Amino acid sequence: MTEQPTTPPFDTGATSAFARHKSRFLSRNFERCGYLRVDIRQAPTGDRLVFAASFTLDAVRRWHRVESALNLPLSDDVEEAFAALFERLEDGIGTARIAQLFAPLGAAGRPASDGG
């Protein structure tokens, strides 16, 4: 899995919690997720964090995106919040994998029509 660097917009304790949960996520999902980019930033209102992740499920690098807002005052303990956010990301990856399995075949994968 290739990881892109990010710089969270908060204090050292929150940055450590973010890094810890991201590392755990990457360890658990190494086989499921080939490439991952996680961004976390302060919402324009300044009262919450916005979490966005882009990931691929295969070597073709068809990117999927999961975005979630964390309604948490930036002064609160974020340990549990980051655990929940990375859990949502895991759910998003699982959903994308299932959707891929049930997606209609492209023109190349469809059986030829008999014209009737």
Structure commentary:
This protein is of the alpha+beta class. The protein is built from two helices and four strands. A four-stranded mixed sheet has the order 1-2-3-4, covered by helices on one side. Strand 1, helix 1 and strand 2 form a beta-alpha-beta unit. The radius of gyration is 18 Å and the shape is elongated.
Structural descriptors:
single chain, 116 residues, alpha+beta, Double Stranded RNA Binding Domain, 22% strand, disordered C terminus
Major sheet: arrangement of strands: 1-2-3-4
Please identify, by name, the CATH architecture.
2-Layer Sandwich
Low-confidence residue ranges: 110-116
What is the typical, i.e. mean, pLDDT?
71
The assembly state of the depicted protein chains is: single chain
- Roughly what percent helix? 25-40%
Give a brief rundown of this model:
The protein has 116 residues and is α+β, with helices and mostly antiparallel strands. It has helices at residues 12-28, 79-102, and strands spanning 2-3, 35-42, 49-56, 63-70.
